[in-house]
Amino acid sequence: MDTNISTYSAPAGKPFKVAFASMIGSAVESYDFFIYGTAAAAWFGKIFFHTTEPIIGILASFATLAIGFLMRPLGGYLAGHYGDRIGRKAVLFWSLVLMGGATVLIGMLPTYDQVGVAAPIMLILLRMLQGIGFGAEWGGAVLMACEHAPARRRGFFGAVPQVGIPMGLLLANGAFLLSGSLFEGDWVWRMPFLLSFVMVAVGIFIRLGVDESPAFEAVKAENKVMKQPALEVIRSDWRIILKIVGLRLAETGGYYITTSFMLSYAVLAHVSTTRQILWGTLIGSAIGLVSHLIYGALSDKIGRRPVFMFGALFTIAFGVPMFMLINTGAGIMIVVAVSMSLLFSHDPIFAVEASWFSEQFPANVRSSGISLGYNGASVIAGLLPIAATAMYGSFGWIGPALMFSSLGVISACCALSMRETAPAVVDKQSASSGRRITA
Known about the structure:
Layout: H1 14-49, H2 54-85, H3 88-107, H4 112-115, H5 118-148, H6 154-182, H7 187-194, H8 196-207, H9 214-221, H10 229-268, H11 274-302, H12 304-327, H13 331-358, H14 366-395, H15 398-416, H16 423-433
Helix pairs in contact: 1-2, 1-3, 1-5, 1-6, 1-8, 1-10, 2-3, 2-5, 2-10, 2-14, 3-5, 3-7, 3-8, 5-6, 5-14, 6-7, 6-11, 6-13, 10-11, 10-12, 10-13, 10-14, 10-15, 11-12, 11-13, 12-13, 12-15, 14-15
């Protein structure tokens, strides 16, 4: 199967413009998704589920967090199908509208004390819409960047939209820290949700100014658009999709243990306040604005797999040390632990996912293939904060620590079974073996 991204030669400056537009939209959607995780860990247990038992309230609010993840494969399926049928750009527009609208409405929801059981029901419905919108976002964003990029710089340009994830997290945690300083009561968590309206408007304006993917335009010109691209890629490439699910566990699962679960753990274990975790996440996210680009560029030189394996192996090694650092209760140690987890575990893996995953599929089913694999892992990742909380309740801190490391084991094994696709590395392999290999 030919998986060459395209032979398109982008005009000077266009790859940067498209990648930047993809990054801004990703940042907005990530902001929307991450403020929910923070609010669920710190506020929603009491506000929407009316329980006096902290761990029960946290489990209930994490259940609504998980619902968003469970809906992401549906968003991925729809985005993949229409991204391969009508184009990447249209999907990006509607995913941003859906995600932003649901987020603003969450900020306006009445609480359990005001309307009773209707409050958590409305929260769950809006969280479902958030999940669909976020699931539709990633595939189109990274394909726009990768399919406009020169082949030998695909790792770098594919990493640019990934910068939107730490940027969104940076904005989300910054919004809560600022809101906590300026407001009191419910307004502390409501304001970050309501601010999404402005960010969505900016994201839509920027994205409307970019051109459709040249790879998709080529598919249309050659009359190769499929009627059911998602079903076709499931039928022909289901093994690759499952591998992508496993590849993402260390990145996305480890990420939500490090951020969302750790906010609850700090309080439940009486080791710190949520503020220290937020600062660690804030610093790690700020570093991620640069580290993703470095890791992406490095993958163009030495290959996708080596960069990915560095992050997976660090995940395996860092589970227990991370919790030991946090258990000291010292602010600086907590900040270092969270920052290191993001920088050396999450970032190298996430930086190469856009280019590596995209290079596994042909253009006419590519949006479907990467969207299904990427969001399939989200179903598992969405349950991990709940599982980590339950593991802590049964085994203490060692339970979630070992869970964190086990995710790295799964992803490392999957990475070893995936083919290398970086053109520079593939060309060297081709030259040394005396035959041509298509990247």
